[in-house]
Write a structure and sequence with these properties.
The structure holds two protein chains of two kinds. By secondary structure, chain A is mainly α. Helices cover 76% and strands 0% of the residues of chain A. Classes of the chains: A mainly alpha, B mainly alpha.
Chain lengths: 262, 324
């Protein structure tokens, strides 16, 4: 217990430090301000992580990018989790025809590679927040539906559900009050993993130039923009790379821990 | 009993084939819907991408609307589209004016070469590592691969590629950076894809091996006096290979995502590169062609994986689906 407490203390310390940095960055620095006189300078007191090819502050761009990427990822996964879980619960509770149709739809949606879907949507709709969000949600909901359906189907066969039904409770009430809590812990785990995956997708889209459009500070796009200057600006490229890696790693580790905890 | 099973195999296969066709059909429909859901006048978009903004005149737009038959009712265009897809003639590129099928045929050859190389490389790494880790669960190697796999799967593909470029091209100058002329050009893109594939497959192989080792038939084989290796080769391998084959098909989905990134990063002339370029140029026929090609080949590959699984384990035939 003590070890876990210390770990949480440590983790919340890191989180608090991050929040303070983000607030400070947002408060003080303009991620879009260009100054060609200081283009591609090395890290200094004025620019903690140096500047990019247009003389923009990499530190400011990095920390403006964090809440944007994580925010879009969270929103997209929340939408996917909501619709996926609903579809799974409905499939578990309804007759064979509806359940069959819903699960066929899930299978079909699962058959398409995720990045492809997000990419086609974002690419054809011209990039920007909404297409990216929509693409990620569309790619992720079937996993939630499949998982919810599997868990709910086993819960529905248990004796206490039968008892509730005999007691005259409505079907929707049984679903919401007795089945859903059992599903939610696993949904949370899958959603946390999903946020990590979504952050990866957002940065991959940005890397390809199909995601959030410049000059929006976004990690993948930052990496692409600086790629031609790799030999003169290694730190400016490494910074978003490391930030991206750590963000995804944290999501994946947390998701895995949640899935094991039950 | 024996006879019933023999009849059941074609039926289960037939059902899976129908499913794959349904996937392709729905994919074609989604492609069509997407094209027509984009805001803006399609004829104008084509005109701008072909002629450039300065040279686009209303007359030119009308001419393109006639030539591409864009003024016909949607349902007729949908019918045309399905017929075109069935015959493999999916129109001409807005940008180059060449038939899409012709452009993609050339590109898919390059992509297949890259895929084969990446797949082989990844299994060359993953099979020995996964089996060794699975034969000694919680050993040093097992924990090391678990850690490495967790780290590697948190890395976006393009970062693996950038790291490889900065080491082998910029620092050591051993390999050419981009393009495709000689076989050396395959090395870096294939390694990038393979490293991304290795992370999950080592864990899958390891878990499959561990599960088989715990099975009662393995204990029985050991009791009968087989050594660990011999028991595994005789009884474990076939059982362990089912989740591995299923996963190999899923890997194709990962590879597809990977191609889009890796081919762009290394400027490799495959399907992924063609698709990203087409998306950036709003070259809709090529985008649709790529999406169709990728989607249907994914459906075909998971179909093949299911059939292989049914052959490996006839019990799956009764349940009607191979994977899962």
């Amino acid at each position: 217990m003590a070890a876990a407490d210390r770990r949480y203390l440590w983790m919340s310390g890191v989180a608090a430090g991050l929040v303070v940095s983000v607030v400070a960055a947002v408060w003080h620095r303009d991620p879009l301000h260009q100054d060609l006189m200081v283009a591609l300078t090395s890290p200094s007191l004025r620019f903690p992580l140096g500047t990019d090819h247009l003389g923009r502050d990499v530190f400011a761009r990095l920390f403006h990018g964090l809440p944007r990427s994580v925010g879009i990822a969270t929103a997209a996964v929340a939408a996917a989790a909501f619709f996926g879980t609903s579809a799974g619960l409905i499939a578990a509770a309804s007759n064979r025809l509806v359940a069959g149709a819903l699960m066929r739809l899930t299978d079909l949606a699962l058959a398409f590679p995720g990045l492809l879907l997000a990419m086609v949507l974002a690419g054809l709709m011209g990039g920007g927040t909404m297409p990216v969000l929509l693409g990620i949600s569309l790619a992720q909901w079937p996993q939630f539906a499949r998982m919810t359906r599997t868990i709910a189907a086993t819960v529905m066969t248990e004796a206490h559900i039968e008892a509730s039904r005999l007691a005259g409770l409505a079907e929707w009430r049984i679903l919401l009050r007795q089945v859903m809590p059992r599903v939610l812990t696993q949904t949370m785990a899958l959603a946390t993993l999903g946020v990590g995956g979504a952050v990866l997708t957002i940065s991959s889209l940005g890397f390809l130039g199909l995601g959030l459009q410049p000059p929006t500070p976004e990690w993948g796009a930052m990496i692409t923009e600086l790629l031609p200057y790799m030999d003169v600006a290694p730190i400016q490229i490494a910074a978003p790379c490391i930030a991206l890696f750590l963000t995804v790693l944290v999501c994946m580790a947390a998701g895995r821990r949640l899935a094991e905890a039950r | 009993m024996q006879r019933a099973v023999r009849h059941a195999i074609p039926r289960a296969v037939f059902r899976r084939v129908l499913e794959a066709i349904a996937v392709a059909l729905i994919l074609a429909t989604i492609c069509f819907a997407l094209v027509h859901a984009i805001p803006g006048d399609m004829a104008l978009r084509i005109a701008v991408s072909r002629l450039g903004v300065e040279n686009t005149s209303p007359a030119a737009v009308e001419q393109i609307r006639e030539a591409e038959m864009l003024s016909r009712p949607l349902i007729a265009q949908y019918g045309d589209w399905l017929r075109a897809v069935a015959t493999g003639d999916i129109g001409r590129s807005f940008v180059s004016g060449r038939p899409v099928a012709e452009e993609l045929l050339g590109a898919s050859g390059y992509t297949l070469r890259l895929a084969a190389m990446a797949w082989l490389l990844s299994y060359a790494f993953a099979l020995p590592l996964g089996i060794a880790a699975g034969l000694a669960p919680n050993g040093a190697l097992d924990r090391a691969t678990a850690l490495a796999a967790a780290a590697l799967s948190s890395l976006p593909t393009f970062m693996i590629g950038i790291a490889l470029i900065s080491v082998f091209v910029l620092s050591l100058d051993w390999l050419p950076p981009a393009g495709y002329r000689r076989t050396e050009h395959l090395v870096l893109p294939a390694t990038t894809l393979a490293l991304g594939l290795v992370a999950p497959s080592v864990r899958i192989i390891r878990n499959a091996v561990v599960e088989v080792q715990d099975a009662t038939y393995m204990t029985y084989a050991r009791i009968r006096g087989f050594g660990r290796i011999k028991a595994f080769v005789r009884h474990g391998l076939r059982n362990a290979s089912i989740p591995i084959v299923t996963f190999a098909a899923l890997q194709f989905a990962y590879l597809m995502d990977g191609f889009l990134i890796v081919e762009t990063l290394f400027n490799y002339p495959g399907i992924g590169d063609a698709m990203v370029k087409a998306l950036l140029a709003r070259d809709v026929p090529v985008v649709m062609g790529c999406a169709l090609l990728i989607g249907t080949s994914y459906a075909v590959i998971s179909l093949l994986a299911d059939i292989i699984c049914m052959a490996l384990d006839p019990r799956l035939v009764d349940e009607g689906h191979g994977s899962r």
